[in-house]
Amino acid sequence: MRAIILNRLHEPPDFAEAKIPEITDSEVLVKLKAAALNHRDVWVQKGLYPGMKLPCILGSDGAGTVEKVGRFVSNEWFEKEVIINPGLNWGENALVAGKEFNILGMPKDGCFAEYVKIDQKYLYEKPLHLNFAEAAAIPLAGVTAYRALFTQSNLKKGEKVLITGIGGGVAIQTLLFARVLGCEVYVTSGSDEKIRKAVSLGATGGINYKLENWHKALFKEAGNFDVIIDSAGGENFGKLIDLAAPAGRITFYGGTSGNIGNIIPSKVFFKQLTIKGTTMGSSEDFQLMVDFVNQNKIKPVIDQVFPIKETEAALTKMENGDQFGKIVVKI
Q: Which domain holds residue 78?
């Protein structure tokens, strides 16, 4: 089979031949139709991910058709169109992933290939309203957004939400999920064009975080926020505390702007704020996310679809932060 294989750090992955995986009794072989990129793929390429193990086929997100089932797998899965939960071995504690948790696409070979093997318990039927490219864009971003909004932030219908760094797959998925509940959503971005696109998807408004005192301008326009979903951290995090409403919840899943500093503790405890970190999600989170997508016929935003042989160009685009939505490779 053809696959995108990372053999060396800090170099482009190779588009090369690899052996079709051999499945165990509890696994299935999925013939992939599409796979989606995540920032994780860029971090792995740069060696910035713990537990590095090379060579490895990249790619956490995939959608395709079950071509072969193991001896202990129901034949009902044969030839079904599926998506894959890339969060492996979460563990028994729903509150936090265990030590054995890892993500498909390193160390376990991932979805930038014609075939991938996966244990049956990570299989989910592809939502019928999504094509393969859209379905491949759902798993990692979808479960991260769902857990951030609902499991961690306990979002309620009609609350006011702020999403930072709009443009990436998780942030946009968060916007789509919050709008389904009728929430009033504002966004931040360093690009006025991305803010305009977010408004076209249902955001009420937004602010460019490159502006001086952007948080004061946003407060003047929108007031305080019940829920804030952040992907950046850094020095702007203290401004999110200013923007949070009393009893507000701030959940963050990334740290692209670096370490968090300049927090005034009294602003947190007098407002009775809840600040939580999150990443990926449990099997229950994933099932609830898939159900939510199905029930509300949610479609992810696709920025661009590349042929698999051009995956390096897709990775470069993601690293540059030019996208609005998910970047997908067609297999």
A: 2-138+300-330
